[in-house]
Amino acid sequence: MCHTGIGTLPILYFGTPEQKAKYLPKLASGEYIGAYALTEAGSGSDALAAKTKAVLSPDGKHYILHGEKMFITNGAWADVITVFAKIDGEHFTGFIVERGFEGVSHGKEEVKMGIHGSSTVPIILQDAKVPVENVLGEIGKGHKIAFNVLNVGRWKLGAATVGGCKRVLEHSVRYVKERKQFGQPLSTFEIIQDKIANSVIKTYVTETMMYRYAGTLDDAISTLDKTDADYDQKTLKMVEEYAIEASICKVYGSEAMDFVADEGVQMHGGYGYIQEYPVEAFYRNSRINRIYEGTNEINRMIIPGTLLKRALKGEIDLMGEIQRILGQLKDGFPKETDQRTLVNRTNLVNQAKKLAVYVSGVAVQKYMADIKDRQSFMVAMADFIIEIYAMESALLRSLQLIKQLGEEKARIPIAITKIYVTEKCAELVTMAKQFCANVAKGDDAAYEKYEKAITRILDVKPIDTLNLRLQIAQHAIENDGYAI
Length: 484
Known about the structure:
By secondary structure, the chain is an alpha+beta fold. The protein has helices spanning 9-14, 17-29, 142-178, 190-221, 231-241, 243-268, 278-286, 296-312, 318-331, 343-367, 375-405, 411-440, 444-457, 465-478, and strands at residues 34-37, 53-56, 62-73, 80-87, 91-98, 104-106, 120-131, 135-136, 180-181, 184-185.
């Protein structure tokens, strides 16, 4: 992931023709291994606070880099490293640094909780001599490289968690079918079946989100002319356009993987804590996903932050949509009324979108431009957006499967979607009420107005989820794991 993503993409997207010709063939073949050095001891999430400095040599042929980068994946064996430093202590800039350059070395391996198969070391730059032709991109525009390349890395991380979830389910389902307690296999107990079903649901939703993002991005890039000299830069603009979705995929996938790994350990009981059983490693290894490629907290801030910036630029008509919803509160909300399968879930998702806009509008109208500094509200807005993207993705996929396969063959996706949309919408109502209570700050009259609107926008009736979960679990048990 590191080599093919953040280790290679900076040169692909920002390199000069000469830099691409020199490095990309060897990175593609594996002759060179790539790495990415952004983090420092004092600057993790706040990447632009980096202290590594670059100064032009007296003869003008090299930049002299001095500083230390932390937690560098592939660091001990990387041949080519994208390093970020501030020229003259001010201009944040990217550099292509080779392992063999004078003044470049690495520290000892970090002793980590998980991902023991990866190298994680500090990269030490002691007056490292980097040729001026190895400046990557524009001087002072290193942030464009740092943040845009991370967008792709975030989606890749989310996509990787799908495989992790599936593997955990395979190991866990096989184990509970073989392990007997009280004279019968663990797989026959409802409480175990509930864990299997919940893990399948998380995996289905995660997988669907990752394919949705990939398909959307592929469709956008397919409109470009590959012979265009600016093809890579235009591709990057497409990636930047879907930065919100990339952060959503990263946050949701990493947390889904943690959930499934935790349930896997629990289904194994004491054996899940023993290294001889694979789920122990999955549990440890999954924890880093919520930290690297931008912590989940930072990614949660990015999601509403980017939307609000686009609204201020007039790219999104947020206030117009809020006014439409306020109008519908008086006149009633349009609903699908036919008898199609999942039509009720379609209505719930549509109303959930309106609820997210409404509560966001409540906060924006209260705090205006200062909303960006109210992190608790920004994170809550992000959670609304993430869940709506997840619900809608699952719904769209299930509707497509019904069309392709018919209802009988799509019964498991239908069951998943019914459970997920119904339960998550109920959670969103609770979240919305708490969100608005926090905005109201003890003003009962203001809160009652908000609560009345929330109830009108999204009314969720419980359904029989127990029987649906048992169907999902039985399907997984019969197929030794995830089989959709």
